[in-house]
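help with this:

***
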Amino acid sequence: MSNRSLDDLNAGDVFRSYGRTVTETDIVLFTSLAGLKLPIFINEEFAKKHTDYGGRICPGLLTAALAAGMMEEILGPATIAALELTDFKFTVPVRPGDTLRAEITVEGKKNLSDGKRGIMQGRVRVFNQREQQVFEFSEKLMMRRGRVDDLV
């Protein structure tokens, strides 16, 4: 996990995550937990016959949750809270077996008056193993400033 604080980030910085393969188990557990019952997520035969995807796809919110985990690895324990997650765009369906990675671009930052925290604005893009962008969104995160070594 990263030990970056807000002070270590600058506009234009780009960080890339590890890869993560979306499994059948991920989709089953997520749809069960969220109570999702759309056939495109849970019924392979329906999805093969009645969609252009050739089978089931991953729920977009599962893709978003996986991106959140990848962001945590990049930004680490200096992240205090997500203040805004906006402009979700799902551009290519994610299928079981796809391997995803996230890319975070820092678009700006500002310090808060207490001198201990600040706000980072960024853009997150998620790509599959074919380098197709499958998802993107904007974020505003509250982050700690200064040393974060004692947080890990």
